[in-house]
Amino acid sequence: MFKIYLIIIVLLQNITYADYSGIGPYNVETTTSMVTPSGNISTQCTLFEPLNGPNTAHVILTHGFLRDQGIMSGLAQHYASWGLKVITMNLLNSSIINNNPLQDAQDLNWISDEIGGGGPVIYVGHSAGGMRSVVAAAQDSESVAVLGLDLVDASDNAWGDIYLALENASSISIPVWGLMAELSSCNADGNGLGVYNVAEDGNAIRITESDHCDYESPTDFLCNLLCDGTNDLFSDSQIDSVILSLSTSFLLWQAGIDSDIQLLWTPGNEYYNDLITAGAITQLVELSTDKELTSPNAFKIFQNYPNPFNPVTTIAYDIPYDGFVNIIVYDIIGNIVKKLNTDKSDAGLNKIEWNGTNNQGQLVSAGMYLYSVEVGSHRETKKMIFLK
Predict the structure, then answer these.
(1) What is the DSSP track for 165-226?
(2) How far apart, in whole angstroms, are the C-alpha atoms of residue 59 and residue 214?
(3) Nearest Cα to Cα of residue 57 among 343, 258, 351
(4) Phi, psi of 260 (to 5 degrees)
(5) DSSP three-state, residue 351
(6) How many C-beta neighbours within 10 Å does residue 44 have?
(7) pLDDT digits (tens, 9 = 90+) for 76-125
(8) Who's near 17: CB < 8 A, 6+ residues apart?
(9) Any bridge partners for residue 330, and if so which?
(10) What is the pLDDT of residue 198?
């Protein structure tokens, strides 16, 4: 047993301190300002910009529930030092008295456009900020990737038992990858894992002995008091190194700065293999090295966009052949609300809008609805949310 433990220690000394765990080559300029993404409600926003950095996708970095942007400033500074423009903000709807993740996601979209300047964006979030990041990415046609940092999904009575990240992850084809801590009440016993399993390009890695607080920087006394785990094999600095190495490399890869460093996440790469051998990480989502590309001849329906919506949303579907397509909206107990289409559609991608009215032309009430797309022997149903 002692020999095995010694081998692990030697491996860790050689591999956990990868290049991307240290400060990058760029000096960082930080600008803090007050912005107004939600009507007349102002909040603080900070831009971390690498001086003379490359013109690439920017990063929206989001804090968790009951936290603020300061708790993510260390990570923002680190990512920016590697050439990434990073933006943080104080969420306006992430407290016990006002918890509205859907509005927060829209605010993140606004921040991306107004402060980030639009264009390609990577949404990154810790805890419930990770859930908001997935929703924001699903609403943003410019999003290129999502990175969850111990993502926790939302499910409470206010939202009718809806796991918002889970609902939205299946609607986007961009990479939805994440790092996860050991199971605890602080991360809802790892309830974010399902998000990566339903995503078309999902991937998740658990970093051994990491806890919920390890995925924000700098953390604070309260988080450590409630969520700090035990360390029997790995030191805090070794855990931090793996988190920084993997998260930074993913962002640099997705931003197009260095495509080769995706290998740090890939079986067969020395860094990844040594981390597995040492027990420093666990692969949580099954990876396929020969994953097939989406076939244009496959039957597929996409998540409506926008979702939630008011009053108009678009439903897109891809069919392998010309055929009569039935598209029907149901309420949550299965009653027909609106028949949107019973006509013939051409093979390939098709779109249709729903304006929130029933078959009598009346505006429906707010809530969850189902839409079903059927052609030939193929049928698929998805959920959507109508807001007023």
Answers:
(1) HHHHHTT--SEEEEEE----GGGTTTTTHHHHHHSTEEEEEEETT--GGGGSSS--HHHHHH
(2) 20
(3) 258
(4) -70, -25
(5) strand
(6) 14
(7) 999 999 999 999 999 999 888 888 999 999 999 999 999 999 999 999 99
(8) 238, 241
(9) 336, 370
(10) 86
In DSSP notation, 308-324 reads SBSS-EEEEEEESS-EE
Site of tokens 């300061």: 70
Residue 245: which H helix or E strand, with range?
helix 236-254
381 strand-pairing partners: 372
Whose CA is closest to 250, among 174, 341, 161?
174
In the 8-state DSSP scheme, what is residue 39? T
- Give the side-chain half-sphere CA count within 13 A for 282: 10
Q: Binning pLDDT at 50, 70 and 90, where does residue 1 land?
A: very low
Contacts of 278 (CB under 8 A, 6+ apart): 8, 11, 12, 15
N-term to C-term CA, the chain? 62
d(CA 339, CA 372): 10
Domains of the chain: 2-283 (3.40.50.1820), 300-386 (2.60.40.4070)
